[in-house]
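Hi R.,

Here's the input for the zinc ion complex you asked about:
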Amino acid sequence: MKSMSKDKHQLSGVTEAQPLRLPRSAVEAIAEVWSKEAEYSPNMSLVEMVERFNGTLIFSDDPRVLETNSIRVNGERDFEIRIPATATAAANRFTVAHELGHYVLHYLAANDRKPIFASRYGTGEAENEANWFAWAFLMPAEDFRRTWKDCQSSILSVAEYFKVSVFDSITRARQLGLVPAKLVIDEDATEEVVA
Ligand SMILES: [Zn+2]
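And here is the predicted structure with zinc ion in place:
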């Protein structure tokens, strides 16, 4: 299945998202600009998030649809994000922001704009960049610090406010130096970072 879909991509001239190789701070700066530009707020629906970028969001439970690629960019304002209908709202919010990261970083900001796709379980630098984008897009530094203070450093309240998982809010708190990097957290409260 996997190799077949790859061949299909190669034939249609769509290539895998390539990293910009920027430091995390640069990716975060880009993400925050887009978060502002899109007037993102945690109350925004996932469909609205994607529509702000003129893309299409598809919910699916068909493994054949989901396993191949989670985003496919055909051109500017022309892309499709696919997410599992059964995942939690918080996990899907992160996934949507991550895929928007691929669109902004690996298509819009690329030197050579070419149709791209990103696999659901991809690894490497491009995936890291999309994750950095997602955390900063969903939790801009200034908003996060203010909310952290308002919630009296309660990670659960912060996660609830931003409508993200506990794992994602802890990650952001660590990135902003609000909790020690080696804070031990309950394994059950974490979830895997999507690709
Ligand atoms: Zn990805």
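One thing worth noting: Residues 1-5, 189-195 have pLDDT under 50 and may be disordered.

Cheers,
M.
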